[in-house]
Amino acid sequence: MTKEELLARLESIEWNDIEFKEAAWAVPKDALSTVSAFANTAGGHLVFGVKQANGAFTVTGITDADQIQNTFLGQVRDQNKISVFLPIDGTVHNLDECIVLAFYVPEANRQEKPVYLDGNPKKAHIRRGGRDDTCTGDELLRFIRDAASTRFDAEPLDLDTTRCFDEASVRWYRARFAASNPGRDTTVSDEAFLREWGFLVERGGVLRPTRGAILVLGSGEYVRQVLPRMVADVQLYRNATADYSSDVRWADRLTVEDNLIKAWQATVEFYFRHSERPFAVDAATLRRDDDPPDYISFREAAINLLIHQDFGDTTRVPVIRFFRDQTEFFNPGDAFASRAELLDPGDKEVRNPIIVNAFRRIGLSDQGGTGVRAIFDGWRKLGYLPPEIENHKAEKSFRLRLRKEKLISEAQLLAQASLGAHLSEHEAAVFALLLRNGQVDLTDIKALTGLPHAAALAVAQHLTVQVLTESPCETAHTWRLVPHLRARFAAEQAEKDKDNQLSAVSPAVTGPTEQVTDQVAPEAGGLVQSLDRLTDVQWRIVRHADTPRSLAELMAHTGYRQRPHFVATHLEPLLTGGVLRLTVPDKPRSSRQRYVLTEAGLELKILREQQQAAGRTEEKQ
User: How far apart are CA 74 and CA 71, in angstroms?
Assistant: First the structure.
């Protein structure tokens, strides 16, 4: 942690990745509890020499940095005090003539968890927000299952192999296998097939099914013995996410207590039953293609939910919730890979290798760790915000949200047009996300664009070269808008919020368009305010100006006769906002002067048409 990063965190709050302790004279007694919590969760910084009071942090310093550092590092290297060795190093910072020590505690390996104190596994902790919580019994068992060298789904079960499999599922699986693996011998018996592909293993001269085999292909009664909870709970709601509460009842629901093949089939049938299915014909093959546009992302997300869940966790159920504005996936069991690693190509360590390989053989699981990338790619092609991932290391759960919200809105296109900078497709997407979130990192850019590491970094650096962004900490690969743009868009947002509050208490003003004069609020601090919304008249201009038009043509098209009012109120804001441009910019009063959409204006027109088409489709539904 650099000095600049530490100063920034002192202005923030204590959260799941940082803990401040006064430690003026000695190592605090609860310091190792924080070490255990960070190691069992996602790592974090432990800082000595900072006092917390009334929600604020005060640098108090420590009296003997060498003594405290040596004592603390000696404790974390003592396996009688902490169960594993953690490579922890300290950094000394001088703040306000005081010495502060900052230690980074890394996340422990999966095989080393739970990290506990005093030789007692019941003294294992996890990090929740700004607290170090002692692990519950269920939480300890989750860590122990994930740490086992033999995976949970590979364990042989003492079951009758002639009765424990579902014949229809085996038949369906073998048909898919034959189609996905041409040239393979498909004439062998079911027992020989199941043995060849690891569903049956020999123990003491007797064939036994693995737990994964029963979960994938088992008959219902045996699946319920192995997994005494639902495999999946799929719920459909007619309302938006913001209106959801535990009191809101679903409009339709599917609960599955059967094998994973049947769970997949039932989930897909539920999805198609409730999805919009547009009709289209492929021009090359003349084959009908009526998959819903979000099917690829849904398919990969649903399969991930089914095959990567923690089947040893019988207290929580995987849930898929369909809302009008997004689809949510919840899974018991966190991903072993980080969010950044999930977006990179290559195989990842998985919780259930037997089950994952079973699905891969028939083309229903990603190859080489491409499943999450396929989810992001499919969502990006629809123009939506990137999917949201919450890989919760403390509660060992995984959440994925597919929000049906366009990444680039009309207001953002207008904001970009006002900059006067030419942005590539990827740069425009990153800038739009910056306007929403305030800050992005390299993983955000890769998720947003689908670019590899070097290309994504180049996009971020080019935005900095154009003086649109800055990196508060280059080593962390994070970027934010430059100060004057942050101030500008923050002022505009505050002005919009004020307008919204006033409109909520003021009577509506109605009347003919020509009799209304738009009032433009004066800008604070001399900031140039960007155009963030268009009037109905301006939208008529945008729709008509995709080819060069004279002033007279635009006035006639919009029904205006008062030239000064038309120019000042509607035309000039489009010019200064970068939506329209002059065809003869050197001579504004030229008789040959025409007005035409800029590149940003064309994008705005297309976006408006897409939104209107989507609105008409929703009304029909």
Answer: 5
